[in-house]
Amino acid sequence: MNRFHTLPIVLTLVAFSTSASAQFVKGNEAVRTSNTGERLVELAPLPSSGPIRKTKPCLAQAGCHAGPWHMVETREGLVECTEVYAREGTCRPSSYGTTKLSRIWVLKTGGQWLQCRLPDLGSKCVKVFAPPPTNLPYPAVQ
Questions:
Q1: pTM higher than 0.85
Q2: 106 near 115, Cβ under 8 Å?
Q3: How many percent of the chain have pLDDT more than 90?
């Protein structure tokens, strides 16, 4: 066997380990572990008023979503959602690492909910509950 025959296997392992390592955002205060080892996850709350309270959500499987996918950590793990709030039916299993999509990462830090360009607190982030246009996120194809 020559050394080039093993190259695809090495590349596959590298690609897998890269996607697996970015399945969470370091420093996301919304995800904690209890003393018993249980994964505790807080989701962004719906605003107490405004049109979102009366708007029917776009379900993840409905084909109505035209914007970037919101990457949200849940108790079950990372999912991609049609909205920040991860309401029932608006999320599907994550395809991060296997499918390139426009994405935004939803996380909490310093008590504030943010939408970040990348799974990194150092990337461009905006406050979810800031007034428009300062709450407009910076999605990236990833």
A1: no
A2: yes
A3: 63
Residues ≥6 apart with Cβ < 8 Å to 79: 71, 72, 73, 86, 91, 92, 93, 94
Rounded Cα–Cα distance for residues 103 and 109 (Å): 19
* 3-class secondary-structure state, position 118: coil
SS3 for 42-74 is CCCCCCCCCHHHCCCCCCCCCCCCCCCEEEEEE
d(CA 75, CA 30): 10
Peptide bond into 57 cis (omega under 30): no
Helix, strand or coil, per DSSP, at residue 99: coil
Q: What whole-number distance in Å separates Cα of residue 74 and Cα of residue 77? A: 5
DSSP 90: S
Give the pLDDT confidence of 89-98 residue by residue, as tens digits: 999 999 999 9
Cβ neighbours of residue 121 closer than 8 Å, sequence gap 6 or more: 25, 26, 27, 107, 109
| Segment holding 17, helix H or strand E | helix 7-21
